[in-house]
Amino acid sequence: MERLCLHCQTPMPGARANKKYCNDTCKQMAYFQRNGLVLSGKETETVKYVSHVVRELPLYVDSQECVTDKTVNIKEDTEEHPFSETVKYTSKITVDTDEETAFENEEENIGDNNTDAEQALTDTRVSLDHLALNEEKLINDDNVEEKTTRVKYPLSSQLTIDSIESLLAKHMQLVQQKFDTALQSVKLEINHHSSSNPITQKTEPTINTVVTQTTESVKPGEVFTYVESGFLRRLERHLEQHGSYDFGIAGRSWPYDAIKAVQWINPRLRCLLESLIRLSNYAHIDYHTLLCLADAFYKLVLSRAFNNLPDNYPFTKLIFELNTKLQHLVVVNLNATKIVFRLPQKRKAEVAGIRFRLLEITAQLKFSELDFTEEPSKIQLEQKAKPEKRLTETWQDRFRKIQREQNLNKAA
Amino acid sequence: MEQTTLTKRYKIPQDVLMDILRILFANTIKHKIEGIREKENSILLAVNFTDKVPKHTQAKENIENILTDYSHYMKGLLEDGTLFMDEDEEDD
Predict the structure, then answer these.
(1) Mean pLDDT score across all residues of chain B
(2) Minimum-distance CB partner of B73 among A281, A283, A356
């Protein structure tokens, strides 16, 4: 199966089984991506999102204005935010927005008519009581230490315009501090979410600004398509299918005669297969060469070793097929001087694959160095030697038997 | 702007010739057949690669991968075993 690069998803034909990335660049970029690093001039989706969200935070406070003008300018994003923390802070700030309305009303009352001061003071007291309640609500959410910073509001009878102004300033400072902490928490929370959960970033509903994306336009003609060699693919497929055959393991279950036969056949087969591949590369061969090759295959098939080959020997069928084809070629090209000898790609890939497997287990021998007829003298000597050994053993057995009997008689 | 042209010579066996030619034609890479080795049924091919073109770099890798694999599987069968010949660098 063709493997894909884990970074750029490009196919990696011919890659080894545990290869992860197509090249060093992809490996490095994957490392950068894992660690959240960004190369200069490139924007990743994560960075885009974080910068965008920080710009488009739902909370905004004008800190200077709120102290001097005694007004709080709050811009609240009314859209639903997916993060729970953000929703929490938004709800708090909604309360503070009510404060803003109260302050505005109060300012209008004081500025428009001083004679209505008493009424305004009453309203202010109500507003401040309301503020105090809200303030308490806010502070109760936090720790105890923050409670000591609460503004103590006087009774309405003790209030003057100056005291109201100072109270408002104090209160606004407190609110400002709360906003700042809330803002920091929201920022941290968003950063945390953006770094830990990249999937939710993409589905962020509050993104309503257009982010310019610098996507590289790739023309169809610019894409390089990797070409895989058909011959090599066939050869590799053959090795995958039959490459697991281990002569060492298989040889353990073979009888001694079969192992000897395999050892005799293998170097000859390798030599013949190499000759076949070489001859198929030539422009043409002569009849004599073809005859020698066909004769060698014929002798190999008729040999005693070939008959003694074990049943699970993997190349028996191929030797038979090649022998048949070569005998046919010899008959067909009987009077030809130049013969164009070609192997089909499938057959050649198979032959090359088997030859590649034989490389490890057999030595390379030349065609002229090999004899394809088994030496009868050696076989005959072996056959003659076997009865002699049996006779010697029989004599020894008899001698031991006689000795044993004599010992028994003496003992008796 | 100067473009460095790299000329590489390859001995392409018949078994992978069609694959190599497919790469060259698909990526419009300049090439020239310099000779034929009839004994080995292979051709001597000079290919001009341009450094600045990424496709050429990838094509070069592809060709050399095929030839490396071929020489790996055919080890001992090729006459001299070298499929990558000398290389020349030219500045245009």
Answers:
(1) 85
(2) A356
